[in-house]
Amino acid sequence: MVHGEPIRPNREGVAPPVRVLTYNILARVFADGPRRHELVRRALADLGADVVALQEVTRTADLDEGRALLGPGFTVVDHPHFSDDGGGACLAVRWPVDDVHVLELPAAPPDPLPWTATVAAEVRTPDGPVLVVHHKPSWQLDRERERELQAVVAARFVERVAGDRPDLPVVLLGDLDAGPEAGSVRFLTGRQSLDGMSVRYEDAWEAVHPGEVGETFAPHNPLVASGEMPLERGRRIDHVMVRSGPHGPLLDVVGCRLFLDRPVDGFWASDHFGVVADLRRPPHAPGTWAP
Question: Taking the model in full, what pTM does it have?
Answer without folding.
Answer: 0.93
